[in-house]
Design goal:
Elements lengths: L2 E6 L3 H13 L2 E6 L2 H10 L4 E5 L7 H8 L7 E5 L4 H8 L3 E6 L4 H16 L2 E4 L2 E4 L4 E4 L2 E2 L4 H12 L5 E2 H9 L4 H18 L5 E4 L3 E4 L3
Parallel strand pairs: 1-2, 1-3, 3-4, 4-5
Antiparallel strand pairs: 6-7, 7-8, 8-9, 10-12, 11-12
Length: 218
């Protein structure tokens, strides 16, 4: 299966050049030319990676990125003409995995994509007879594939990617349901945690009374 990438670039000539090159290298490329298309596609389709041009107009990039990366775990490589260290640090602090400054050689872009995908593809978690592939979103127990719902996956993924932290119930509700109305979703969180424990192993998700949850595997 080809690696699926979303390219967000408002300059259609540049977009087409990047798309043509990467497709020759056996990537599958979708394009978006404004931030509305980017948000819609990123939320609806599971991409392996997003290439994001920072120069798209009429958008508060930091706010959008914070909201979007609570909903998806897709790595983002920033493409921009802004190359200052301050610009780079802002984006590395806000979930960009890499940063490439225009103009760039397409071979360098390809190398950065492959390097970041290699890192992501190594996310295989094992516990007893349980094997979890976060890239494929596949959970196996005694070699049988488990039926994990989207909400259950998001809870596990969020806990695992913050395994050194204690996450509050509020943290998890904001991430999974993307809401600030906690009362309605509070019971849903309990149900999802309970079903996830039954499908995996109870001890995998540790409860810290009155506070929240923490993952219990490395």
């Amino acid at each position: 299966m080809k690696t699926k990438i979303l390219l967000v670039e408002d300059n259609r000539e540049i977009s087409e050049n990047i798309k043509e090159y990467l497709e020759l290298e056996w990537f599958s490329i979708d394009t978006a030319f404004d931030w509305e298309q980017w948000i819609d596609k990123a939320l609806l389709i599971k991409y392996d990676l997003i290439l994001l041009d920072l120069m798209l107009p009429k958008i508060d990039w930091i706010s959008i990125a914070k909201k979007l990366t609570r909903k998806i775990d897709t790595p983002i490589i920033i493409i921009t003409a802004k190359g200052s260290i301050n610009e780079k640090l802002v984006w590395f602090e806000n979930w960009a995995v890499d940063y490439i400054v225009k103009p760039f050689d397409l071979r360098e872009l390809e190398a950065r994509i492959k390097a970041n995908l290699k890192i992501k593809n190594n996310q295989i978690i094992t516990y007893k007879d349980l094997e979890i592939d976060l890239q494929k979103r596949e959970f196996k127990k005694s070699w049988e594939i488990l039926n994990i719902t989207t909400k259950e996956y998001m809870i596990f993924d969020y806990l695992y990617n913050n395994k050194n932290l204690l996450l509050t119930r509020t943290d998890i509700i904001e991430y999974v349901w993307w809401t600030e109305s906690y009362f309605e979703e509070d019971a849903k969180l309990d149900v999802n945690i309970s079903t996830l424990r039954k499908k995996l192993y109870k001890e995998i998700i540790k409860t810290v009374k009155w506070v929240g949850y923490q993952i219990n595997i490395k």
